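Support case: user asked for a sample of complex input and structure output to validate their parser. Sending the pair below.
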Amino acid sequence: MTVKVQITANLRDLVNGQRSVQIEGSTVRELLDNLESSYPGFKEKLESNGHIHRFVNIYLNDEDIRFLRQMDTPLSEGDVLSILPALAGGRR
Amino acid sequence: MSIMVYIPTPFRRFAGNQVYVRAEGGTVAEVLESLASQYPPLRNMVYDEMEEIPAHISIYLNKQEVHSLQGKQTPVKDGDELAVIPAIAGGQVLTPEQVERYSRHIIMPQVGPVGQRKLMAAKVLVVGAGGLGGPVALYVALAGVGTIGVVDFDVVDLSNLQRQLLHRNSDVGRLKTESAKDTLNAYNPEVNVVVHNTPLTSDNAMEIIPQYDIIVNGADNFTTRYLVNDASYLAGKPLVDGSILLFDGQAMVYTPETGCYRCLFPSPPPPGLVPSCAEAGVLGALTGVIGSVQAIEVLKLILDIGDSLAGRLLLFDALTMEFRVVNLRRDPKCPLCGDDPTIDKLIDYEGFCGAPFPAHDGA
């Protein structure tokens, strides 16, 4: 299964500046492992000990995977995965 | 049938400054219709969004209120005199200047004079007079929102001027709240700008936030973000949130029923992991997009129109020029708004976020 992963601006440095990458995986966990193989260092920005950081949300299409099957959420052809860390900016 | 209609002072400007105008019709409704088609701006004065006579307008036929007759169907005859009398008490009626200033709002049925008065009665608190707070405060001020509170403790820095439209070159070194007040009142002197020249903290948040109807978050740090979230929820106020970094923006609305910032991000990143705009940069014009979205959401909430962003998270990528919306769910396990909450008063946010409230811009 190849899934499009959208990368927000502040994580793009990790994927050579690309706005999205195509990654294989039948579940979110598998996809993140493959993402790590292609772009070493990515996974540690997202998780520790197999758990997604609580300031990072991963959306499968328009749904937060926390409300699906988390890391075991299955992926289908044509899905879009978005990785969104919390942003704080605004005032300064 | 041609009858005389008396036009009261507040409306006279819309009827060519005439005290009496002639209108045609066999019933009160027909006469009002004739009046509205001769003088279109008057339509918004005599009809509400349901095309009914608003409650604050009384129509008199020969000195008798028409509700005591046959209402709008009351027949009229030659020689009758109709008068359109607004209730003039407590500033309920829009002045001619207000009608002209807000005419582009008032002509829309979704706003109308009733909606405009709602805007003028509303109280909106903007936390942070910076990149996001600027366009939000400016647009809600232009829209005529009656009271705008501005919380900030910082002074204007030259590096702010790349995006912060409330402040100008001559404001460098001034308090942001003072600069914001001057700018907002220069655009719209009717707006009551309330300055809270202090950092928002656990000690003062529950004094300041309950004074307002809607809270807008334009804070630049996670510590303040969690504080504003919790205080708004505890005070039962809708929170219109936005954030920006580099070329990305996010906007959302939290209402007490639809989830909160903690449902979205249960805990903050460790200090330093997600860079701030000061550290990583931000495209200045991005503040206008997200700030305008926040302003629109504020106005929709006040007017009670459309579908707010409550329950949804709007994502904007300026580089691809793509907007996307993902679902935002209330987390039943949320410690603040979940089924079994553990947070029932403000906590130590510096401890929770592992970072102090910022002491000073650029610190």
